[in-house]
Amino acid sequence: MGERIEAVVLDIMHVMDYLWEAGTGLHGEKGKERTPWVRNHALAILEGRVGRVIGGLKQILTKQELRSSQKKALKKVITYFENHRHMMAYDCYLAAGYPIATGLIEETCGSLIKDRADRSGSRWSSEGVQAVLNLRAVMKNGDWDEYWNYHMETERERIYGRSSDAHPSSVAKTA
Q1: 90/49 Cα distance (integer angstroms)
Q2: Closest Cα partner for 70 from 83, 61, 78?
Q3: Most Cβ neighbours (<10 Å): which of 5, 24, 58, 62?
């Protein structure tokens, strides 16, 4: 197995929700500027410029005349981005091939786990459901043939011992 690398990634869809909230607060629900504003800020975040986005939002907050509702929306977004900045290195995550949204993971959970384990009338022990899910994961990953060959060899060794242990020539050499 390869080296295990862990990264905590903030789902980009949560970031987008906050950008839309800020964009709507600044430009209104139907304002022409809203969509381009959100798009530009999302692109900046994806390119690794989270600090600039936060700085820009802070400048808007301090330098523009805003209604209290606009200030409240911006402060909420700024706080969220500052608190989660360490999980928003999307340029690095994308370069490494990491998923930045949970949709794929949630779909995998649905197709791998829920479709099999959450059937009406099903009763599973923890060990039983884990065994079935392990096999489903092997199959969905396209590793079934490799796994099956490994499994058969392991079972053969478990039942009959290692092939060299039972070979007549190895018995003759030890006698």
Answers
A1: 9
A2: 61
A3: 24
A 10 A CB-CB count for 67 gives: 9
Rg (CA), the chain: 27
pLDDT band at 41 (very low <50, low <70, confident <90, very high): very high
110 class by beta-carbon count within 10 Å (0-12 exposed, 13-18 middle, 19+ buried): exposed
Q: Say which amino acid occupies 144.
A: W
Residue 8, CB-side half-sphere exposure with 13 Å CA sphere: 4
> Do the beta carbons of residue 88 and residue 14 sit within 8 Å?
no
Residue with tokens 């330098």: 63
Report which residue type is found at 108.
T
Please state, in angstroms and rounded to a whole number, the distance separating the CA atoms of residues 40 and 19: 10
- Angle CA 60–66–72, to nearest 5: 85
Residues 105-150: pLDDT tens digits? 677 666 666 666 777 777 878 888 888 888 888 887 888 899 899 9
Structure confidence by residue, pLDDT tens digits, 81-94? 999 999 999 999 99
Q: Give the pLDDT score at 1.
A: 47
Residue 31, SS3 per DSSP: coil
Residue 88: closest CA among 37, 52, 134, 36: 52
Q: Are 88 and 50 in contact (CB under 8 A)?
A: yes
